[in-house]
Structure formats: structure tokens, C-alpha cells
Amino acid sequence: MHARIVNGRVAEIFPASDTPLAERFHPALVAAMVEAGPEVQPGWLWDGVAFTPPPPPPPAPPPPAPMVIALWQFRRELRARGWWEDVQAAIAALPAEQRADAEEWLEYGTEVRRDAPLLLALAGALGLTEELEAAFTAAAARTL
Predict the structure, then answer these.
(1) Tens-digit pLDDT profile for residues 44-89
(2) Distance separating alpha carbons of residues 37 and 61, to the nearest angstrom
(3) Which of 19, 20, 49 shows the shortest CA–CA distance to 34?
(4) Does position 21 have pLDDT exceeding 90, yes or no?
(5) Helix/strand/coil (H/E/C) assignment for every residue in the chain
């Protein structure tokens, strides 16, 4: 078996044959071939001496945090991260109309949008803007 090498990588594998390579292929193609063992596959690396399998592909990026989660998931995550009291204090510090809206949302709402202005304002006030995506991802994984 022979491997055609392009830029240090196996581009093609040619099975062994009784016919010499020079009779089967153009000289330029033969010049790019080296003898290879049966384990060698396209994509393997060739350093001029030995073949090695290619490095594993990088891990897939994590999926993006969901845009919407259930309010109960959000509340559970706030408590799990020790943020519940801080959020309550930040809401208590809001102007009366915003405070009433925030309290009703936390008490009677059904969902939380990651891009909701109130949520972003609370996260900013508490210095949690960077942690918000991870918190949403963890909250979305919560089940009853």
C-alpha cells in the first residue's frame, strides 16, 4: 500500500498491486508517494520518517445559552448561586414603579428572557453580567 503525501498529510491511499508504481502512475504522482502500513488513512500526518494519526478535532463549542427559561428555573439558580438575597436587595433599591414591576414579575411571571432590560439592569447593578450566560445555561438544565 502507498500513500500520496501533500503538505505532510496523507491525501490518498493506493492499494498494493503487482504492477510497479511507475507503470501505474505519472512520475510526479509517484514522487509524492511513500510506502504505508495498513493502518494509515487519508488525513494522517507524515513527517518524512513516520506516519502519525491526526490530532483529534477540537471540542465543539458549547451551545449558546437559551434566550428564555422558566421563572422557577431562574429562581432556583439564583438561590443555588447565592444570588437570591442580592437580587432582592437590588429590587428593593429600585424606584417605586420599577420595583413594583420587578416584584410582580418575580412573583407571578412565567419566564425570563436573557435580553430583558430589567434582568440586564439587575445583573449590571450586581456585577453579574459576565456570569449571566452560564447561569442561564445551568438554569435551563434544571428539571423538576
Answers:
(1) 999 999 999 999 999 999 888 899 999 999 999 999 999 999 999 9
(2) 35
(3) 49
(4) no
(5) CEEEEECCEEEEEECCCCCCHHHHCCHHHHHCEEECCCCCCCCCEECCCCEECCCCCCCCCCCCCCCEEEHHHHHHHHHHCCCHHHHHHHHHCCCHHHHHHHHHHHHHCCEEECCCHHHHHHHHHHCCCCCHHHHHHHHHCCCC
